[in-house]
Design goal:
33% helix; single chain; 5-stranded mixed β-sheet; 6-stranded mixed β-sheet; 11 helices; alpha/beta
Length: 301
């Protein structure tokens, strides 16, 4: 099992420019101690640059990052484990040699835990890293990171290259570590994984933070109202009504997305005489798609 001392991450007005291009634009968010925070965004949204700036691997143009109020520097880095999008392992070293090396680098590195995790992921520690598959190189990096017993884990697309079984094992490991108090910040294109593991989320677009907060609260603030009809509903009378942010019609099924006035959407659908009606929370995937792009007011399948 993994255990870390709780650590709070605070990012304030972080920006990074490359000439006229802003890769990260005035980014601020707070990850409370012991929280699992999922960062979502399309390719090029600025997630990796954000992580790099937080860790000081890339010099930010402006803004700050702090762990428990202390700037992230050489002393703070002892408390942080980081896996970049392309795992940093040494091709000429075996897994066992990596473990011996990491044990010298990090005071809290747990050799027994590293070996347990390697067995859990079915990783052959006798092989040199260059002989490992892409997925197993990622597994080796994960084993080393979690065995650091860091207070804060920053994982950039940690499931990249992993097969479905390994992805499930990694997700379980993240959830276990979070339950024991480790603060975890991770990015992923697998929205279902973020939805299962994260307590708070941030959604980035073009370097800016578009949405951030407690996942359950964010989802509960957006509703889906679904209704089925015995006949053909009058779509024209539904479109544009208060509470109807998006309207999707698929045969006898009408689906309304609403963010501020669910009662209005319910009344509009009830006026058409539905045979059934139900109210659902928005899924994280739907919330993500809604956040990164304004959907059309009416879509018919």
């Amino acid at each position: 099992m993994v255990h870390g001392v709780t650590a709070r991450l605070e990012v304030a007005h972080l920006s990074k420019s490359y000439g006229a291009q802003r890769a990260v634009d005035d980014l601020s968010f707070d990850v409370p101690a012991g929280t699992i925070f999922g960062l979502l965004g399309r390719n090029g949204a600025g997630k990796s640059t954000t992580f790099s700036c937080i860790l000081g691997l890339t010099r930010a143009t402006s803004g700050t990052a702090a762990v428990d109020g202390a700037p992230v520097d050489v002393r703070t880095l002892e408390r942080i484990a980081y896996i970049p999008e392309v795992p940093a392992v040494y091709g000429w070293l075996t897994g066992q040699e990596h473990i011996a090396f990491w044990r010298r680098l990090y005071a809290r590195f747990d050799t027994a835990l590293a070996r347990d995790l390697a067995e859990r992921f079915d990783l052959d520690l006798r092989k040199r890293a260059r002989a490992l598959s892409k997925g197993n190189k990622t597994v080796l990096a994960l084993v080393l990171a979690f065995a650091q017993r860091a207070d804060l884990l920053i994982l950039d697309e940690p499931s990249s290259g992993l097969d479905p079984v390994m992805q499930r094992e990694l997700l379980t490991l993240i959830i276990e570590a979070g339950a024991e108090g480790t603060t975890i910040v991770f990015s992923s294109h697998a929205i279902g994984q973020v939805e299962r593991a994260a307590e708070r989320i941030g959604i980035m677009g073009k370097g800016r933070l578009l949405l951030e907060g407690d996942l359950d609260t964010l989802r509960a603030g957006h509703k889906i109202v679904e209704a089925t009809y015995p006949g053909t509903p009058d779509v024209a009378s539904l479109s544009g009504r208060r509470g109807v942010d998006e309207l999707v019609v698929d045969g006898a099924l009408v689906r309304v997305r609403t963010s501020e006035y669910p009662d209005g959407a319910v009344r509009a659908l009830q006026e058409q005489g539905p045979s059934s009606l139900r109210i659902l929370d928005l899924s994280l995937e739907e919330l993500f798609m809604q956040t990164i792009a304004a959907p059309p007011a009416l879509r018919t399948n």
